[in-house]
Amino acid sequence: MRYGMIIDLGRCIGCNACTIACKQKNATLPGVFWCKVGVSEEGSYPHAYKKIMPTLCNHCENPTCVHVCPTGASYKRDDGIVLVDKDKCIGCRYCMAACPYEARTFDFGDRTGYFPERGNNAYEDATAYKHVKGTVSKCILCADKIDEGDIPACARVCPTGARIFGDLDSEEMQALVKEGAYQPRPDERTNPSVYYLPK
Questions:
Q1: GO: which molecular function terms (predicted)?
Q2: Where residue 154 sits, what CATH number does that domain have?
Q3: pLDDT of amino acid 84
């Protein structure tokens, strides 16, 4: 069992529903995005086109972030999900430096909220426990939802079904990999659990 995700770039329309669902579910702070959708323009007129690239933590099979963590705060579960134990994290940020995908963020303790002039709203107050000043945070692949038998929020809300979540060892996921799905930055030899199907 190794959980992962295959993102079909031919289906992704760059709507950012995944970004919003991730922020809402995980109550990430202003400016913090565990799930991002990069948009750029490629080519030149008259053959220019929009390139859409959704990204998240790759939950690597060989995670450099785990290897460099001096306290064991960054760890990998048996199902392949990579997490951070806030109680063990000392904020050294070695994991951030080691991650080739820039998937981690550091909590500097700014609790201004989304609407500073109004103060924190009830939701921000209720989810404040999720954030610990001086620690690192990242996409958790909605491990809590998976443990309840659900799928990650980003995959749940995708209107085009571009995000396909499941056990990478299953026949269905392996069939998609064999269709030509590729991993980001294979030169890093981390064996990411996130694959992309090209257009």
A1: 4 iron, 4 sulfur cluster binding; metal ion binding
A2: 3.30.70.20
A3: 98
